[in-house]
Amino acid sequence: MFGRGPKKSDNTRYYEILGVPKTASQDDLKRAYRKAAIKNHPDKGGDPEKFKELAQAYEVLSDPEKRDIYDQYGEDALKEGMGGGGGHDPFDIFQSFFGGNPFGGGSSRGRRQKKGEDVIHPLKVSLEDLYSGTSKKLSLSRNVICSKCKGKGSKSGASMTCAGCQGSGMKVSIRQLGPGMIQQMQHPCNECKGTGETINEKDRCPQCKGEKVVQEKKVLEVHVEKGMQNGQRITFPGEADEAPDCITGDIVFVLQQKEHPKFKRKGDDLFVEHTLTLTEALCGFQVVLTHLDDRQLLIKTNPGEVIKPDQFKGINDEGMPIYQRPFMRGKLYIHFTVDFPDSLSLEQCKALEGTLPSKPSAQLTEMELDECEETTLHDVNIEEEMRRKQQAAQEAYDEDEEAHGGAQRVQCAQQ
């Protein structure tokens, strides 16, 4: 964050809020905050806004680096990100200062705990799994609160406020870029790894080595229900990494459906492609289709029924089970393509002409035929032809552009 130093008149308000002079020592600040914070705490009927201002002022002035920024550049520099003035919860600051509720009993507000991050895992499933349902057992590693020290990190349960960051867990680096120009970078404290506290080497818990958590392996059984969709989430609440003073996040499995070689799914419906010979399309057919649950479905046409190219047929209740209503199913659609023969013999043509509906009756006379010009049909790959024509047109356009450009250059040279 970059910014110009604000006016000097902005660097006294925090001292006035705490009622201390600018020369106040850290002990003076602590005494002033302790007295004013207890008096103005909302649980004792104090003014919430005043309580918030006290915490904001103490947070800045108790940190030597932030105090130095405030004394030099004032409150605006902190608001622009140069130390995060007022960035922390005033109740958390009060709690860390007193180490508990000084009024006894539970606070009417309660201590807010941040929620840990959710852990997302993709879970590949087949279309058969989503059709019939399945269960998958997965082994995962996660952090859990150390059972020996109960998440304290020390044998005695004691810890000290980190001297490097004054318990905030963050440190601020400042660079002077020029007159009135400064740059601030905030990063986790490397002394306490962002925890805000340190533990004596000799007092560290032998089981977790002061880390407060240990790793454990856990097997989760994921139930994939009939009719679930690609991308659907299955959540295991509170099964992610544990951490002290933190609500444990969730483990979330996201279903990823693998491509099926035969069936395609669209919502609750299934689609399958089937190719017929011309004889089957005209004279009827029957074929056995193996479904996703290995049932054998007999697919056949009625006598005299003709299947046309690109035609669809549907079968009710043979699609996907509907999620949480598994006894109801969508439709199964069959898309037919017809494989025509490459050529026919003269005998086959005569036999078909005698069987199939007759040709259109309008016939050309010999005279009309004599007036026509003969043509020759040849096979084409239309996609390849269009691509070649487009490429030729582009090349012609490029040549035209070069010719015009050359003419303009000649004109410029003549001028």
Q: How would you describe this structure in keywords?
A:
415 residues; alpha+beta; Helix Hairpins; HSP40/DNAj peptide-binding domain; 4-stranded mixed β-sheet; elongated; HSP40/DnaJ_pept-bd; metal-binding; ATP binding; unfolded protein binding
Query: The CATH topology of the domain at 2-102, please?
Result: Helix Hairpins
* Strand percentage: 25-35%
Helicity range of the residues?
25-40%
CATH superfamily of the domain at 2-102: DnaJ domain
Radius of gyration: 40 Å
| CATH architecture label of the domain at 2-102 | Orthogonal Bundle
| Main sheet: strand order | 13-14-20-17
Ends apart, CA distance between termini = 53 Å
InterPro entries: DnaJ, DnaJ_C, DnaJ_domain, DnaJ_domain_CS, DNJA1/2-like, HSP40/DnaJ_pept-bd, HSP_DnaJ_Cys-rich_dom, HSP_DnaJ_Cys-rich_dom_sf
GO molecular function, one term: Hsp70 protein binding
GO biological process, one term: response to heat
Keywords: Metal-binding, Repeat, Zinc, Zinc-finger
Provide structural commentary.
There is one protein chain. By secondary structure, the protein is an alpha+beta fold. Among the domains are: 2-102, DnaJ domain (Helix Hairpins); 114-155 and 205-258, HSP40/DNAj peptide-binding domain; 263-339, Sandwich (HSP40/DNAj peptide-binding domain). Helices cover 29% and strands 27% of the residues. The chain contains eleven helices and 20 strands. The strands form eight sheets. Strands 13-14-20-17 form a four-stranded mixed sheet. A hairpin with a 2-residue loop joins strand 6 and strand 7. The longest helix has 33 residues, at 382-414. It is elongated. Mean pLDDT is 83; it is low at 1-9, 82-86 and 104-111.
